[in-house]
Write a structure and sequence with these properties.
The chain is an alpha+beta fold. The protein has ten helices and five strands. It folds into three domains: 117 residues; 78 residues; 118 residues, Histidine kinase-like ATPase, C-terminal domain (Heat Shock Protein 90), CATH 3.30.565.10. Strands 1-2-3-5-4 form a five-stranded mixed beta sheet, covered by helices on one side. Helix 8 packs parallel to helix 9. The longest helix is centred in the middle third of the chain and has 75 residues. The two termini are 55 Å apart. This is histidine kinase. GO terms for molecular function: kinase activity.
Length: 370
């Protein structure tokens, strides 16, 4: 079989160790046909090297070379090192061959082994030899099957985690879109009010101005209705059907109070009154603080968190930190994905990680991001 993986240190290392053990055993035992046994042992070990890429071919060649050793003089029980070759062959057939196809190849090698017992071994053999051989080959084969199953499960788990991460990014983008739609809805609502007021102020050609302003007002009301309808469709049921206005820094004290009720002690550093920001930046700053406090509540070591928000004409910076220890959970990382996606959309910068036993989130959003 092709395409498994390129050769690694393990691919060469295992056959090298077996070859060294085989040669050492041959030197110490000095069986009949020692030279032929040494050559076959080295050749069989070389055949094991590509066992992950060409499993069936590698197993057939390595097993056949090993089982030919008794035909050149050495008795089956003279050497023990060839058993290691057969064990690696059995493991490889189970590990790298899909389903149970490796059993067919292993069956061919068992026939060759039986021929060794029948035609080269001068001792009297009985059914106990069958159990002896099975006891040598079955365990590595079972281990290979278990390893294959675990590898498949690990790959499936990784695939599902990737899907979850992608879904989390999509969900956060949807949430950003909902927040931006809220901003649009409020802007259009203000447009309607301002246009209606302008109708009373215009005196030049009042009939045409009134008709034009009526069209603007009607268009604004229609856009507001369409935005509300869209918000109603995309919001989840927990979001009060989209009726609540988009939150911002002004709502942070209320957010902090809810977390305090849940048992998280929060030290919030925020100017009073809260700085005025473009609506898109304002709601994103709120969401970032919300996610940071959620992580602190779930995984903080001492149920304390610090949040500092500073703002100038160019940038708003959100810093959040909480204590962690070796027992604190790491979480799924999906919340950080959401923060990162939101910061990326607005053209900001995000740094997070553990420093001196504290988990810190540092996000910077340009004020002109919208």
């Amino acid at each position: 079989m092709r395409g498994r993986a390129p050769s690694t240190v393990t691919d060469w290392g295992v056959p090298a160790v077996i070859a060294a053990a085989s040669l050492l055993e041959i030197v110490l035992v000095r069986p009949e046909g020692a030279v032929a046994a040494a050559v076959l042992a080295v050749a069989a070990c070389l055949a094991l090297v590509p066992r992950r890429r060409w499993t069936v071919l590698s197993a057939l060649v390595a097993g056949t070379l090993t089982l030919f050793t008794p035909w050149f003089g050495a008795e089956l029980d003279d050497l023990a090192a060839p058993i290691m070759v057969l064990a690696v062959v059995a493991y490889s057939l189970a590990r790298w061959v899909p389903s149970y196809g490796g059993l067919l190849v292993l069956g061919v090698l068992m026939v060759l082994l039986a021929s060794d017992y029948l035609f080269t071994d001068e001792r009297d053999n009985d059914v106990t030899d069958v159990f002896f051989v099975a006891s040598l080959l079955v365990p590595p084969y079972v281990l290979g099957r278990v390893t294959q199953r675990l590898a498949a499960q690990a790959a499936e788990l990784e695939r599902r985690q990737d899907l979850i991460r992608e879904q989390a990014v999509r969900d956060e983008r949807d949430r950003i879109a909902r927040d931006l739609h809220d901003v649009i809805a409020h802007s259009v609502s203000a447009m309607v009010v301002q246009t209606a007021a302008a109708q009373d102020l215009l005196r030049t050609d009042p009939d045409r101005a009134a008709r034009a302003l009526d069209v603007v007002a009607a268009t604004g009301r229609q856009a507001l209705a369409e935005t509300g309808r869209l918000l109603h469709l995309i919001r989840d049921s927990a979001d009060e059907l989209g009726l609540a206005p988009a939150p911002g820094l002004a709502q942070l004290p209320e957010l902090v109070e809810r977390f305090r009720v849940d048992g998280l002690e929060v030290d919030l550093q925020l100017a009073d009154p809260a700085p005025e920001l473009p609506a898109g930046v304002d709601v994103s700053a709120y969401r970032i603080v919300q996610e940071a406090l959620t992580n602190a509540l779930r995984y903080g070591a001492d149920r304390r968190a610090e949040v500092t928000i500073s703002c100038d004409s160019d940038m708003v910076r959100i810093r959040a930190a909480n204590q962690v220890d070796g027992r604190s959970g790491q979480g799924s990382g999906l919340g950080l994905l959401g923060i990162a996606e939101r910061v990326h959309v607005l053209g900001g910068h995000l740094v997070h990680g553990v420093t001196d036993g504290r988990y810190e989130v540092d996000a910077s959003l340009p004020v002109d991001a919208t």
